[in-house]
Amino acid sequence: MTFTNLTPQSSMSASIVQQMGAFDPTFIPSYYKHSATGGWNCSLSSAMSAGVYFIPCLALGGDSPGWIFAFSPGDGNPAHAGQSGGPRVIGAINTFNTPKGPVASGQGALTGRSVHAIAETGETGWIAIDGNEYAPINTASTSIPANGADCSIYGLPAGKDCILIQIDSHTVGNVTGYEPYLASPVSPFLGTPGELRTTQIGDTACVTAAGAGYCRWPNGTNELMTLKIKNYIGVNGAWVFQRKAYGTERAVTGPVTLWWESVQSAIPPSATGVSGAVQVWWNPVAGCAGAPDPRGDCLIQDSNEYHGHGEWRDGGEAQAVNVPAWKIPGRANAFENWPNVYQTILGQVPAILQYPFANATPNAAAGVNYVLMNPPFAGAYGVPFQPDGGTHPNPAGAHASPNEAIRAFDNYPVQGGSYDPNESSPFAAVSGQLYRYRPGTVTDSDDFYTANRVAYINRKLMATGASCGSHPLIDMSSASTTYSLPEDTAGSYEYCVARNRNECRSRSLPGDVYVNCPGVVVPYCQGNAVHGGTPDGIGNDICVGNLSKTANAIAQFTLDRTDGSGAYSRVLASATSRLRMVSGFENNRLLPDNSWVLYRQEFLNYQREEMWMMRNLPYPEKDSVNRGAFVPVPIQLDPVSAGVSVNNGVVEFGYAEYAQSGVYYCTTRADICQANDASVPAGNAPFVFASEAARGLACRAGCTIMVPAISSRVLYYRIRYRDASNNTVALGPWQVAVTP
């Protein structure tokens, strides 16, 4: 393998820095050097499309003002660096002065912004640039009334409200002026007027009272205005603004501060999830209706952009959003209200950016789809919810077949935090290493939660996830009232959930959760969307709650339709790491032919990472099985052929992963699961535990019992025949069935 330096430093005119200086004299190299190393604060592995490399350089590290260079390797000859046809910079924009001229209505712009991220789009030539707020300011003594005068009094078109604001001059060193400046500059910035941009007609500014630490225009708390005239009738600093640039007019008593930043104007103020961030799209080679756009004069916006993590390449778009129609019902806390949802669109950039505005509403705009990636199972919801689990979708392989290219993938880490339980409803210390959580609401013995504090636990509907710091917990739950979960090291990393009085510990109540967790630092679940509490350095915490099928799993979903039930998604691999011992930025990569998935595994308490590969099976054909609930598996009972006289019967069932001593259970609770009905009961009790001593199905001459099975699992079952007093008269062997 041969590496070639396409921009040799021996020829200063050939270096990237010198090329940039020649391409755009406003680029100041000293602003983009790393203060510690003296090297450049740039990323050489950020994005590439259609043979062009995009290199971001930041002034102060992440989320600071920066440039994005478009570099073409050209003919690959270092001797031609900087020359036409050779390796050279073919475009450059920044996040604080793009475009350099006036900003037209609806035009994409980067002013008062930082570089947050850039994203590829396959081989379309376009990249997405995300910018957070990094706004320079002005001050003024002018008070802002609730409504402005008609713009016609300033010689502008009538029908809009306008206001004249006398901008204060500002001096730093020997520079005095009326242009915006950084109020608290950090080196290398000086805070001089116009240091980042000379305001242009069409620029937008948010207005607050003086002294405010920030401006909230996205939610209408503060008003956004558009600059229409500078130096009205020849008066320096007399600037005319059009009011209500983003949905609202607000009165502010002077003095005021103006925060200058571009706006995502393609998203209306009434939209769901309006954000203060901005995303624009740039194609330096053909961005101006097919003509070159080297300086960002033709940046475009996405009419359905919500600033969630996403991918826009090859088969289409997948972007994380919140969908109000799919908000989780019930009374658990706000963090539980938002499951993971993707907005999906088929096609390529830039065409997919022009779809009608859908406002995060399923079936509102043709072609704009939504996929619920953490759907309920039999009505129960489990982690990960937003914002405790990161979402970073990735596309199919670049050379995937047409049927495979319209799917996408993600890896869903479980981080913990803000529920199960949180600091407002922590576990209480019992003695030694033993802690107890007592829920505020017990719907029944298997379903409980604490309103606005702790997420649901539905023991018969969804698996329970439980951890003590980095350690998964072993479930010791059973119907025994003589077993007592130890409070010393004999019970380390075990837990027990009581469904009846005196289970797990004496004097327990239904719904009590006991955990033996050594070295607890915080007696609740601690974490964030980046990583769980233990990698965060807080020591052992306690997390217990419903765990959905996508938790710590790699899943595949479709882009071509709206799917609110998970009917067109599947889990490819689960347990990609231990609960919460995983980065919130987990992601996958497909080989070009889509045959294998590459993903990362974390080991040794976050001290080692390994790259794994997983075989990717073809996307399955559509069928009629509802996998969002238990799949009814009919089991025929024939006591006549068995030669026994019976009154009723039950089917006992379970799965190999829950088996103990040759007995198969269907949950981690050591209590045999029994199906006893001709159909799967609706609600929270699709089956009964043997300890409930429930009735069987009348079966003197034979009957059919429906077992509530989990899709795509190997089901173990046996038939128990009973007399009128529910005494066993015959017990069949364990048998096997495969659930579709």
Jot down its keywords.
seven-stranded antiparallel sheet, eight-stranded antiparallel sheet, mainly beta, 5 domains, 48 strands, 740 residues, elongated, 2% helix
Q: Quick recap of the structure?
A:
The protein has 740 residues and is an all-beta fold. It has 3 helices and 48 strands. It has 5 domains: 120 residues; 124 residues, no CATH class; 179 residues, no CATH class; 119 residues, no CATH class; 108 residues.
Q: Biggest sheet, in brief?
A: 8 strands, antiparallel
Estimate the global geometry from the Cα principal axes: elongated
Structural class: mainly beta
Give me the number of helical elements.
Answer: 3
Helix content: under 10%
**Can you give the mean pLDDT?**
90
Strand content: 25-35%
Number of domains: 5
**Uncertain regions: pLDDT < 50 for 5+ in a row?**
331-336
Give Rg in angstroms.
31 Å
Distance between the termini: 49 Å
Strand runs, count = 48
Textual characterization of the structure:
The structure is a single chain. This protein has 740 residues and is an all-beta fold. The chain has five domains: 12-131; 137-260, no CATH class; 302-414 and 550-615, no CATH class; 428-546, no CATH class; 631-738. The chain has three helices and 48 strands. The strands form twelve sheets. Strands 40, 41, 42, 43, 44, 46, 47 and 48 form an eight-stranded antiparallel beta sheet that branches. The longest helix has 8 residues, at 16-23. The chain is elongated and about 105 Å long. Residues 331-336 have low confidence and may be disordered.
